[in-house]
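Amino Acid Chain and Its Fold in Token Form
===========================================
What this section holds: a protein sequence and its matching fold, both as plain text.
Structure line: whole-number tokens from a learned vocabulary of local backbone shapes, matched to residues.
Purpose: to set a sequence beside its fold so the mapping can be learned.
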Amino acid sequence: DPRFTFANERTFLAWIRTALALMAAGLGVDAFAVDVPDWARQSLAVLLIVLGGALAGLAFRRWLQAETALRHGRSLPANRIAPVLGYSLTVGAVLALVLVFLER
């Protein structure tokens, strides 16, 4: 059924939008977080950009696995992207909070 293929594609595109937003946030942190020490600003920027790049690659892999499963009538693979993204963003948020409180 083409509807499942289109739904899989929409999910892939949503992950890609999230990846682009993470990379843009990393660039924004690097460009505009002037009150933060250089090492902290660059660390957070690199973390966000690397996370966005990794998410884009994982999203494509997930799309391909789901597309193959749909075409062959197999069950869909487990979603491993969400936990990686969730835990990584939690670590990034804690790092950002620590940096903010260190500056006070």
Remarks:
- The CA atoms of residues 3 and 9 lie 10 Å apart.
